[in-house]
Amino acid sequence: MADFDDDYEDFVDTSIPARSEYELNAGIQDRSNQVRGFVSSGRFAEAVAKALEDPPAGRDAQGAKDKNLQVVMEALAAPRGTDIPVIVKQLAPYQLDTLMKFVYRGMAYPEAFNPSVLLTWHEKVTEVTGLGSIVRVLTDRQTV
C-alpha cells in the first residue's frame, strides 16, 4: 500500500518554480509598502485584500512567511470593528480562506497580535463562509 504523502506528491503542481528568499522578501516589502499606503489613506478593504495576495508557501520559506504575517496583521489591526463586516463581504471566497489561515496563525502569537481583533475577524468570516472555511483551513496542507 502506498503512503499518503507519496500519493499526495502526484497532485502537487511542481511546474511552478520555487521563488528564492530574495524574490519572496522583495515581494513582501513591496506589498508592505502598498498596504501601509492603503491604511494611511483609510482604504482598509484594499489594504486587507493586498495583504492577502500571493502569500509565500513552502517549508523553506519560514522567514518570508513570518515577515508576511506582520504585513497581514498590520492590515487586520487597522480598521475599526464596525468596518470588518463590510470588508469581509467584499472579499472573494479564496481570500476569506486565506484570511482565516492568517487569523489562526496570528492567534498562535497572542503576545504579538491582539487576540480580540483576530477573534472579531474570525467571527465575521465564519458568518459569511460558515464552518466550511474553518474545515478547509484546518485540512489544507499549504500553510501561511
UniProtKB/TrEMBL annotation:
InterPro entries: ARPC5, ARPC5_sf. It comes from the Eukaryota. The keyword Repressor does not apply. Functions as a component of the Arp2/3 complex which is involved in regulation of actin polymerization and together with an activating nucleation-promoting factor (NPF) mediates the formation of branched actin networks. Belongs to the ARPC5 family. It is found in: Cytoplasm, Cytoskeleton. GO terms for cellular component: actin cortical patch; Arp2/3 protein complex; mating projection tip. GO terms for biological process: actin cortical patch organization; Arp2/3 complex-mediated actin nucleation; mitochondrion inheritance; regulation of actin filament polymerization. Keywords: Cytoplasm, Cytoskeleton. This is Actin-related protein 2/3 complex subunit 5. GO terms for molecular function: actin filament binding; mRNA binding; protein-macromolecule adaptor activity. Pfam families: P16-Arc. The keyword Cytoplasm applies. SUPFAM superfamilies: Arp2/3 complex 16 kDa subunit ARPC5. It comes from Rhizoclosmatium globosum.
